[in-house]
Amino acid sequence: MATSTSLFCSILIPNLSEVLSVCSCNRYTRRCKMAIPQLIACFVLYTSLGHIPSSLGVILRTTDKVVWANEFEPIELTCLIESISTNNPRIEWKKIKNGVPSYVYFQNRIAGDLEQRAQLREPANILILNATRADTAEYRCEVAAIDDQRDFDEILISLAVRVKPVVPRCRVPDAVTVGTSTELRCLENEGFPASQYRWYHNNEELPQEPKNSPRSTNSSYTINPDTGGLKFRRVRKEDAGDYYCQARNDAGYAQCPSQMMEVYDIDYLGIFLKALGAVTVFVCLTASICHSFKRGCFHKKGHNENNYNWPAQNDGVVYGDADEGHFRHKSSFII
Description:
This protein is an alpha+beta fold. Helices cover 20% and strands 32% of the residues. The strands form five sheets. A six-stranded mixed beta sheet has the order 2-11-10-5-6-7, with no helix packed on it. Strands 13, 15, 16, 19, 20 and 21 form a six-stranded mixed beta sheet that branches. The chain is elongated. It comes from Sander lucioperca. It is found in: Cell junction, Tight junction; Cell membrane.
């Protein structure tokens, strides 16, 4: 059908392309004037057969498909209508979070959790007056135009709301000994995107690589900017001082109060005295145990030691004196 329509127009206007070129250059010549009725006839034929130019369909576009915003600041999501014929198209906005859609703009009013915080701006933009971290989601603009050949179009926009870090929790040891290892820690969980961490010693930032700074060339520390750890393999006297940590992302930064870390030399005299005291206690305890053994304090008495020993009896027979010349039986004599 489209081929026959094109053939009809080519017969009606033999030099159709040339005429269009002449008329489009604003050269309103006699030839162009004579071709206008034929052009109108071709257009009517096309429309009657359903061949409507695509420019009469609704088409949407946006300036940014991925949008970043700072928390508590305004942000506008653009939904621009490039072409449309319908006078009052139906405009809807939906918020898609975790795969679940909900209305943001429906039946000519703001809905959902943006009801008091957003407004529709011409032609179909959504202005969020104060974005929050809960607004991070995908937003879909939908426009329906019933009078257009292409009567529907939609566009998807991703919004991410940056959240400023809160004051991080820092842990700095009060005192360490020269030559030992130790770790300082720093962490916060509110910032979005995830915070990066920096450490400061006596109000000067520690470089990520100690070799890059003349002051830290001989230091043995390492910094993990993702976890906030500051680890010393071998502490030096020069590492003593005030330390604080800073959490930072694109929305801002926050830092913890400074804390003092003292570094002490190895106390050899104290170690010797402690060892000597331990040996003395051990010797005294050993001597006391040996002395107690010698005195029999740990000997267990038998039960028979408290019983009296009765004199032995000779089968109930009592012998008389030698001068008596006879013997007699006792009543306890048993045969």
